[in-house]
Amino acid sequence: MTDPKLDLMIDRPAESVPEMVVRRIRDAIAAGLLPPGRQLTERELVELTGVSRTSVREAMRHLQTLGLVEPSPSRGVRVARLGSAEVREIYEVRDALEPAAAELFVLRATDEEVAALVAKVQPHASGDERLQAIYEFDGLLLAGARNSLLKSMLEPLHTRIHALRSLSVTIPGRLESSMQEYLELAEAIAARSPERASEASHRHVRAAAKAALKAVENLERENPES
Amino acid sequence: MTDPKLDLMIDRPAESVPEMVVRRIRDAIAAGLLPPGRQLTERELVELTGVSRTSVREAMRHLQTLGLVEPSPSRGVRVARLGSAEVREIYEVRDALEPAAAELFVLRATDEEVAALVAKVQPHASGDERLQAIYEFDGLLLAGARNSLLKSMLEPLHTRIHALRSLSVTIPGRLESSMQEYLELAEAIAARSPERASEASHRHVRAAAKAALKAVENLERENPES
DNA sequence: ATCTGTACTATGTCAGACAAAAGCAAAGGA
DNA sequence: TCCTTTGCTTTTGTCTGACATAGTACAGAT
């Protein structure tokens, strides 16, 4: 028995250096600071991050497997561009995984987790708050599904389409119907119906795919791929 | 115009050194030469492969993201053990992705690809031939689904459960029912019915999951986790 | 038999070096 | 003037060596 008042625990750096680099670059990409197509040479990254080339290279490899950067022939890597082909593939996979996650959530989440999830779809003031609530909704869903593999596959997908998500909601009426879809999903989950939850999730992803595809096609029309 | 008789093309190594290491280690694990739980120190790998520690480390990181090896605290990495929890997670994901792949195959594959797929489920002589045919079936399915992301997510899963697959078919009657399931899937695909194909694939994965889970639980009973 | 200290081993990270490949720019010829 | 060719520079891929840190194992002491 240890003294409950005694807390001498040392919190050691939970992340390795390359992991920190991955996180920082990922966030920078998500925030739009590193736009799609941006070239990243190892030299530049070493200077930007202050870590050695070894660590930079390891981080780049990881970001590559996440699909956030892509090799640029003999120019290092560049921030991945999302073309309509990639968006199609991503949404096809998401359309397979996310309904499954919703179903597993219904089967396994505690009542508290269900309540927390439902709370996220209550009406919010600003658009930013709603987007934030949606991200938290997704996080709760993935946690309650009790499948770390599923989580590790879906999260990178969400990251990749992050930019597109904020873009899709600019399509008139998309944000409203999206919130409606989330509401229906939450209702199905609250009712503890795996089938209805799966169906609702499926409908939502399909609608989101349509909006995202339209958004990216608009982008491609304005800005033909180089 | 170059002289058509003149062929001086140099076929350069298509794979980088770390990629070769990944492939070799992966195959060794799949073949059972590196059994689950086997410790792998960097030093040993450097000696076994003849490449530098840098490349070995990069390969290990990649194998880690594939789930084939897992970090072993301050002992480097070890070949991943498949516990019932991991098997459950893997099959839940597979159950989400593979029916989707079957559906996409129906929608997109050429008639030739369908014919090639159907040919794989014709009766075969030995059990080994049947297993081989099944792997080729999966490869064709993934190719015809026209989704490289889906492919890159399902293939590592197949690799991870490879050992279990060969183990599951030792369960009496499993091989026969498995072949029956593949036959039904092939029929649904030949009929170009996305729904039936998805359903058939779903049934197959569920049955395989059950068999795999039973197999791994037998293993765990005989050989309690250390 | 248990505890303690020390040496060893393994990883994480860094710095530097070199070859190979690709792009770029300048020089030279039509 | 324009095209080709040549050489330089940049960048990646890989290797080597080095050091700090952390965990392990063994031997010696109590």
Please tell me about this protein's structure.
By secondary structure, chain A is mainly alpha-helical. Chain A has 2 domains: 17-79, Arc Repressor Mutant, subunit A, CATH 1.10.10; 84-222, Four Helix Bundle (Hemerythrin (Met), subunit A) (Up-down Bundle). Helix content of chain A is 68%, strand content 4%. The first copy, chain A, is built from 10 helices and 3 strands; from the N terminus they run H-E-H-H-E-E-H-H-H-H-H-H-H. Chain A has helices at 17-30, 42-49, 53-65, 84-108, 111-120, 127-144, 148-160, 162-168, 174-190, 194-222, and strands at 39-40, 69-71, 77-79. Chain A has a 3-stranded antiparallel sheet. The mean pLDDT of chain A is 90. Chain A binds a DNA duplex (30 and 30 nucleotides) through residues 16-18, 41-43, 51-55, 57, 73-76.
Our count of helices of chain A gives 10
Portion of residues in beta strands of chain A equals under 5%
CATH C-level of the largest domain in chain A: Mainly Alpha
- CATH names the topology of the largest domain in chain A as Four Helix Bundle (Hemerythrin (Met), subunit A)
Mean pLDDT of chain A: 90
Q: Return the structural class of chain A.
A: mainly alpha
Q: What is the domain total for the residues of chain A? A: 2
Helix content of chain A: 55-70%
Radius of gyration of chain A: 20 Å
The biggest beta sheet of chain A is recorded as: 3 strands, antiparallel
Number of strands of chain A: 3
- The side-by-side strand order for the widest beta sheet of chain A comes to 1-3-2
The CATH architecture category of the largest domain in chain A equals Up-down Bundle
Measure the end-to-end span of chain A.
66 Å
Shape of chain A: globular
CATH homologous superfamily placement of the largest domain in chain A? GntR ligand-binding domain-like
InterPro entries (chains A, B): GntR_C, TF_FadR/GntR_C, Tscrpt_reg_HTH_GntR, WH-like_DNA-bd_sf, WH_DNA-bd_sf
Domain HTH gntR-type (chains A, B): 15-82
Organism (chains A, B): Actinomadura meridiana
Protein name (chains A, B): GntR family transcriptional regulator
